[in-house]
Amino acid sequence: MALFGESIRRIAQKMQACEEWIEMKRDLREPIDPGKPPLNLHMRWAEKEDLFAIAALEGFVKETDFMEESLRKGDRCLLLEEGKQLRAFAWATFRDFKMALWYTLKLPPGWSYLEYIFVHPAVAGQGVGSYLLGSLLLAVRDQGFSHMVAGMYSNWDVSIRLHTRMGFRDHRRLTQCKILNIFPIPPKEGSGFH
Ligand SMILES: CC(C)(COP(=O)(O)OP(=O)(O)OC[C@H]1O[C@@H](n2cnc3c(N)ncnc32)[C@H](O)[C@@H]1OP(=O)(O)O)[C@@H](O)C(=O)NCCC(=O)NCCS
Question: Which residues line ligand 1 (CB under 6 A)?
């Protein structure tokens, strides 16, 4: 009987796929050094007219209405351009952020969340992401914020390196499992904000 129970457990484990989501945080009161601007890139804040190019840079073109709505609600997106070509962007929000059906990231006062940072593959690995993220940290700090949170899957090595280099530290880990890789099981949470 015990053997039968063990077999069932093994089958259930095989049907289950788990991913680990890491949240990292940056204390903006600590020194921030974006370094020198790499290449010949020009930095500016995104406007409504840039949203289509931002969506296209990620490799897919989608409805930009919700992005426009997010900008209206106070999100900021920093851009790096080479001539007229968009090369990178970093999108930050200052409101609670719905990550999934089961999880909304609640931001305490003074906290911000880096929704996404993206660098075009043609200029990746040359310090563009670090410079952009460092510049965003400075800008957000100068607007009076004390912390920024970022999230990524634990196997996104480049993203973890980028954030670590720019002073982010491990904050919280969530394990999300799905049965048959479809049905989500409520995640196991680590510690809360500290
Ligand atoms: C993550 C990303 C923004 C990094 O931008 P980037 O301009 O390449 O970053 P940088 O050149 O400033 O490098 C930052 C760190 O990543 C490392 N890195 C960059 N490209 C790498 C690669 N292909 N392989 C391994 N490490 C790499 C750098 O060595 C550096 O780490 P180090 O200081 O420990 O050496 C970019 O790769 C990207 O857009 N990826 C796809 C989207 C994504 O994953 N975004 C993050 C969402 S959380």
Answer: 116-119, 124-130, 150, 152, 156, 158-159, 161-162, 165
Q: Measure the CA–CA gap between 49 and 93, rounded to whole angstroms.
A: 19
Pocket test for ligand 1, best of 54, 99, 161, 166 (most atoms within 8 A of CB): 161
Phi/psi-derived region of residue 129, left when phi > 0, alpha when psi is between -120 and 50, beta in every other case: alpha
Q: Which atom of ligand 1 is nearest to the CA of 116?
A: 47
- DSSP code for 31: -
CA-closest residue to ligand 1 atom 14: 162
CATH architecture of the domain formed by 2-189: 3-Layer(aba) Sandwich (3.40)
Question: CA–CA separation, 170 vs 176, rounded Å?
Answer: 17
CA–CA distance, 92 with 133 (Å, rounded to integer): 10
Mutation probe of ligand 1 site: the residue of 162, 164, 166 with most atoms within 8 A of C-beta? 162
Give residue-wise pLDDT tens across range 24-76: 999 999 999 999 888 889 999 999 999 999 999 887 666 788 899 999 999 99
DSSP-derived 3-state class of residue 166: coil
CB-based contact 193:108 (threshold 8 Å): yes
